[in-house]
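Re: Re: token formats

Sure, here are both.
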Amino acid sequence: MPLDVIFATRRGAMPTLRIKTICLSLMSLLLISTVSAWSADTKDEETIKNAAAVLQAMLDSKAVPASLLVTANCIIVLPGVKKFAVGVGGSGGRGAMTCRTGKNFSGDEWSAPAMYTIGGASAGLQVGGTSTDFVLLVMSPAAVNKVLAGKNKIGSDLSAAAGPTSATVPASVNGKDIVSYSHAKGLFAGASIDGASLEPDSSADQRLYDKSVSAREIVLDNAVKATPAGQSLISLLEKRG
């Protein structure tokens, strides 16, 4: 083959090679972005699935008095909170909050869940274990508004009491914003979480529902439809009778 043809062929091949390289790079970036987004959604759904499992265990064990559960306006379930040292040390976890529908939270149906995070240190006794599940009952409309407004410190912004497990509800629980339970080593118990911070997880909500939406819009305004995991959580509450 003549040299001028060879050179012309090589010159023509170089742009083609560059185009192929660029296309492959773009495809790789797109694949990575897609996998990352899918992983985020999957993680959020997994958190809600775990929350539903914790709630199921609580309902099955009848750890929470029915007379208390039926008066809760909202429930926040935080599965697998890591190293929650109520005396010394830090904590970190995330979970889901769902609220009763209807005027003044009087309905028998429950909302799609909004995502929440918990963190910080607390005063009191160690609850034990490096991973603990927490169930928080939000007991009044005023308390719900505080929780929805943004970051709150339990014990100062929100009053809290360790939940009773007997059928009789003590007077110390009355008037509290939150009644809290922990679940570790197969047992539920009332738990003090004073000092912990509770905050809406807007990033998780956006991933979960594929749009920017506030916790208030989710649980009060019916702005989204529950995902499959969220529907499982709702169904457990609505079947409790």
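Second one below.
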Amino acid sequence: MKKFTVTGMLIGMVLLVTFAFTTTVAAQRVLKDWVVMTYYGPDNWEVPGALPVTPIRGNGVSFDFYSSPDRAMLIAEIESYPQFQRGKLTGKTLLADIAIEATPGATFNYYDNNTGGSPTGGFVRLYFNKVNTPGCEPGWHPERPDCEAQYWWSNPVHIDLVDLAALGSKGTTLEVPLDPASWSDRDGHMGTDTTSNTVNHTDAFYAAVANMKRIGLSFGGDGFWAFGCGVDEPSTATFKLYKFMAK
């Protein structure tokens, strides 16, 4: 299987997907609007498409990992929810209560875009992106660092999928302050990076926080944080998101 190459770090075509979301749901019910971005079928072998998730008790959601490393991101549009209104998230913290219920001893795999293989391993981390910057089309733009700075991943905070599965159904909480020292963009620049002559990454980070459009979780391994993960056969594994919020 081939996957769309953007850079040595991260995939970049999430914005090609169009979502339809209600604007009448209370903020605490934001979890109903999640989709799992998945590589599947002839139309989604390079760019992940949105597939539905399964509701679980307590207003959470879940999905099953495939044996192939094709589950890439769990994301939701949040612009219509008061909790995530633009300008209200600066200085806050994002947190997600997550778990994996898996066959005992299950191991996981991730897609390595350098080799096209599926090495053992993989992890999950927090993600968000801002509204589209004028002039930034979907895709990777090495000539436009401000385009790459629309997308942010928690760094270094993440958890290995094997470690998460070992915690059982109670799982753990990923909690990351919306501080530039805790996030890196799609081109691998930390929010505190000052080496670029073309973009102030700290300013770009705060602009993304102030204009957040999507929140979520990202699955991958090595430097390919959104290229997808799977569970090694014959094991099975179900990822569960119990809560995602800002505080």
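The chain has three helices and 15 strands. The radius of gyration is 17 Å.
- S.
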